Amino acid sequence: MPPRGEPDPDIRTGRHVTCSLHSHLLFVTRHRRDVFDDEMLTRCEEIMRKVWEDFEADLIEFSGEEDHVHLLVHYPPKVALSNLVNSLKGVSSRRLRQEFTGHVNQAVMRGRFWPGSYFAGSCGGAPLHVVKDCIENQKRPD
Fold it and tell me: Which ranges carry the Transposase IS200-like domain (predicted)?
């Protein structure tokens, strides 16, 4: 929580909306190939941060292992998460394959670094049971 009177950086405000949208994303490499080393993970994070900035979104946390990456993102409601993900995967795939030709077996990857699928989980805010109880217990006008 920010000190009293200061805006909360997790709350985005716009002309007609106040929101806090966070998502946990998981991308695995094509065929779950062990591709990443520390240098490549660092570059992948740099590329992904730039893409998120272009969409006025924030990459809060990034981590990965040889065959996958995890991202915690904070994004605006004006952009669909699927559009962000498609751009992110497309740009990072192209750049990583160009910059790390020795690490990526082009024949196995067949021109694609990531498969078409990904995991996205919403996070932040109150647990679902708390929100459900709050909605159920709202007073209805008589």
Answer: 18-138
